């Protein structure tokens, strides 16, 4: 692909580095930015720079935040007796979008994956342990840990490791239900998912 400008080529190259964006899509985006008012493009650039330089991690749960504590940890109306353990911020957003969960979170920053060289020490597991240890005599002590991790071998390995680490705290440790999605047909479900659905069956009220 030949470009009429080296500046455009450089911009396209950088935009194409974003996930899911190829060279053609990157070129379309760059040309779109060129058509916009310069002030709008400057605002976009400033927003991206501010995001990269000012966004930090919550000191308590490791979620992305503008301040030392994220908006969830700083919200006194959240249920401090429950902590949902997730892999990353995208999972926090996914759970929050359900509007069904009112507790707190702990973001691990990944899952145990020997293939990728990620071990327990690379995750925010020790900070979870310290968080629980410091919470034992709090006004609202933690009573339950929800392990909301991906239903993969790596996710299950991480959950198993966490269960062992959390056992001394005598907490209720639960995991999100796994089964047939709403609107799904049984004949298209894999054996593992269908089996877990049967094991996790619920009683009609």
Written overview of the protein:
The protein is globular. Strand 1 (56-57) and strand 2 (64-65) form a beta hairpin. The strands form two sheets. Strands 4-3-5-6 form a four-stranded parallel β-sheet. It has seven helices and six strands, in the order αααβββαβαβαβα. It has 205 residues and is of the alpha/beta class. It has helices at 6-15, 23-35, 38-54, 89-98, 126-135, 153-166, 191-199, and strands spanning 56-57, 64-65, 79-86, 103-107, 144-147, 172-175. Helix content is 40%, strand content 12%. InterPro entries: DNA_Rcmb_RecR, Rcmb_RecR, Rcmb_RecR_Znf, TOPRIM_dom, TOPRIM_RecR. Belongs to the RecR family. This is Recombination protein RecR.
Runs in which pLDDT lies below 50 for 5 or more consecutive residues are none
Q: State the helicity in percent bands.
A: 40-55%
What structural class do the secondary elements suggest?
A: alpha/beta
How many distinct helices? 7
Radius of gyration computed on alpha carbons: 22 Å
Number of strands: 6
| Rough outline | globular
InterPro entries: DNA_Rcmb_RecR, Rcmb_RecR, Rcmb_RecR_Znf, TOPRIM_dom, TOPRIM_RecR
Zinc finger (C4-type): 58-73
Function: May play a role in DNA repair. It seems to be involved in an RecBC-independent recombinational process of DNA repair. It may act with RecF and RecO.
Organism: Fibrella aquatilis
